[in-house]
From TrEMBL:
GO terms for molecular function: flavin adenine dinucleotide binding; NAD(P)H dehydrogenase (quinone) activity. Residues 378-485 form the Pyridine nucleotide-disulphide oxidoreductase dimerisation domain. It comes from Micromonospora avicenniae. It holds the Pfam family Pyr_redox_2. NAD(+) binds at G179, G180, G181, A182, I183, G184, L185, E186, E202, G266, D305. Belongs to the class-I pyridine nucleotide-disulfide oxidoreductase family. This is Pyruvate/2-oxoglutarate dehydrogenase complex, dihydrolipoamide dehydrogenase (E3) component. Binds 1 FAD per subunit. InterPro entries: FAD/NAD-bd_sf, FAD/NAD-binding_dom, FAD/NAD-linked_Rdtase_dimer_sf, Pyr_nuc-diS_OxRdtase, Pyr_nucl-diS_OxRdtase_dimer. PANTHER family: MERCURIC REDUCTASE.
């Protein structure tokens, strides 16, 4: 048996969630080993949120310029992908190099190990020839990878995932997008605005199917206006690549061809790679279930996409704060002569007297571990118009037997929408629990729909009574005044 090295905490996977947990625990004075097999920071900064939003910023600038005609004169727009690719390479990803992130982690007091970590019994993690043993526990933050459907022929073709789409230096003439979810819609609109002929093929009967049907309609009609072809209810049967072009054949005989094929049909965790059987946890699951303190089992926590609680960076960060508080709580109570009130410094040891966590307050008060609550989970799909949503959709609320009231108002009927004119598509949809007199869900689609959402997130999170929401003052003429109009429509 390989001799193991003892540390306080082992973090496997330094994506959004793992990096936050490992860095903060190290700052708090624990000895932390952080293990990452690819790039420290994970999907979001290198192939996800940040570069995709840089693309969207650029594509939206083109769209705004194209709206000048008829509103403010005329403009000739000549898209150029080169500055977008350069910005992603130089500003966002350092050409997909994590040097700075590794240095940041080490600078916070962490020990970095590059490799694939795997549980090797309770508290133990193996990385290649090294074995680490943890005093307080192991945190898993290994995220997800693209889930590629078993369509005949697809596996042998040079299809793109989000990685190649984000890294692209020269745009193709045409692009087939398999999957009309968040990634499919955001990237399709970007590429279409830069002149690529884009076709989306979606299996369900509408795009963005996890959100309200009205959201699907607004997003689909905006993309169509940008020239994107959308085919829903299509079952892909076979994919071929002849060296130059892809052909996708669908059930019923329909055929789609393009120079490139982007597969964005969801993501999946790879639990089989984590050695979960060595700690008695079933690896044959889609995600790793956790309790409201993110505990998988005694001494093992999970954070981020791996938990299946919503694949968003803000969820990974939210969960990370809970894990940090819980691990520190355990460390506090495990020390000889521990102060169970939790009022002493967070942990002992050479670096333990001053707690950065205590100073920032993000882990909660010493001794109290916050519990996860996803009632007011916000999400924003950054199409133009943006589709922001929080809490339950109408269908989810009805299927739970809630006494539902729905309020709806179109942005174009608001003063601000009318002033805005071109590009004012969108709406506010409110879902209320009539018995409780509170909002339990809401959608805010429109220009800055994700920003307008914030008031609705507060309303759902804090269960603000509808009577109070109706008697608030909404600034004139804002887009968010449409919330007031929708409140008056609740029935
Ligand atoms: C194109 C795209 C756009 C997105 N846009 C947004 C957005 O606008 N807003 C938003 O909130 N979210 C967005 N997301 C989702 C967001 O990127 C994820 O929710 C987030 O990255 C999840 O963080 P994580 O820490 O759970 O996992 P990840 O970021 O996936 O990190 C997991 C890390 O673990 C490593 N790893 C895996 N297994 C092992 C192992 N055995 N040993 C060592 N290391 C391992 C991986 O290499 C990886 O670095 C987007 C995603 C994509 C793909
Ligand atoms: N703005 C954001 O916050 C943002 C942006 C991008 C991604 N993300 C996160 O990343 C996750 C993954 O994004 P995604 O777009 O890959 O997944 P998704 O689950 O959002 O969408 C996948 C789509 O592919 C469709 N699909 C599945 N199999 C198919 C098949 N065989 N043929 C045709 N269509 C098929 C599904 O019906 C679905 O509409 C999202 O769930 C989201 O949480 C967030």
């Amino acid at each position: 048996m390989v001799e193991s090295e003892q540390v306080d905490v082992i973090v496997v996977g330094l994506g959004v969630g793992g990096e936050e947990v490992a860095g903060r625990l190290a700052e708090a004075g624990l000895s932390v080993v952080g293990i990452e097999r690819d790039l420290v920071g994970g999907e979001c900064p290198y192939w996800g949120c940040i570069p995709s939003k840089m693309m969207i910023r650029a594509a939206n600038a083109l769209a705004e310029a194209r709206r000048i005609d008829g509103l403010a004169g005329s403009a000739e727009v000549r898209p150029d992908w080169a500055p977008v690719a350069k910005r992603i390479r130089e500003e966002a990803t350092d050409t997909w190099n994590d040097r700075a992130a590794v240095e940041r982690f080490v600078g916070r007091g962490g020990r970095f190990v590059r490799g694939s970590g795997r549980l090797d019994g309770p508290g133990r993690v193996r990385v290649g020839d090294q074995v680490f043993e943890s005093r307080y526990g192991v945190v898993l933050g290994t995220g997800t990878r693209p889930s590629v459907p078993p369509v005949e022929g697809l596996a042998g073709t040079p299809y793109w995932t989000n990685h190649q789409a984000i890294e692209v230096e020269e745009l193709p003439e045409s692009l087939l997008v398999l999957g009309g979810g968040a990634i499919g819609l955001e990237l399709s609109q970007v590429f279409a605005r830069f002149g690529v002929r884009v076709t989306i093929v979606e299996a369900l009967d509408r795009v963005l199917a996890v959100e309200e049907p009205e959201s699907s309609e607004v997003a689909a009609s905006a993309l169509r206006a940008d020239g994107v072809e959308i085919h829903t209810g299509v079952r892909a049967e076979r994919v071929d690549h002849d060296g130059e072009r892809f052909t996708l054949r669908a059930q019923g005989g329909a055929e789609f061809t393009a120079e490139r094929l982007l597969v964005v049909t969801g993501r999946r965790a790879h639990l089989d790679e984590l050695g979960l059987d060595s700690v008695g946890v079933d690896a044959d699951q889609r995600y790793l279930p956790v309790d409201d303190r993110m505990r998988v089992t005694d001494g093992i926590w999970a954070v981020g996409d791996l938990t299946g609680e919503g694949a968003f960076t803000h969820i990974a960060m939210y969960q990370a704060a809970i894990v940090i508080a819980d691990v520190l709580d355990r460390a506090r109570h495990s020390r000889p002569g521990a102060d169970p009130s939790g009022t002493a410094s967070v942990v002992g040891g050479a670096m333990g007297s001053a707690s950065a966590l205590g100073a920032s307050g993000s882990s909660g008060t010493a001794g109290t571990v916050p519990r996860a609550d996803y009632r007011a989970l916000p999400r924003v799909t950054f199409t133009d118009p943006e589709v922001g949503a929080v809490g339950l959709t109408e269908e989810q609320a009805r299927s739970r037997g809630i006494n539902v009231q729905v309020g709806f108002s179109k942005l174009s009927d608001s003063t601000r929408g009318w002033i805005h004119r071109v590009g004012d598509e969108g709406f506010i949809k409110l879902i209320a629990d009539a018995d409780q007199g509170v909002l339990i869900g809401a959608t805010s689609a429109g220009p800055a729909g994700g920003e307008v959402l914030s008031g609705l997130v507060v309303a759902v999170h804090a269960a603000v009574p509808l009577s109070q929401l109706r008697h608030m003052i909404y600034a004139y003429p804002t887009f968010h005044r449409a919330i007031e109009a929708a409140l008056h429509e609740l029935r």
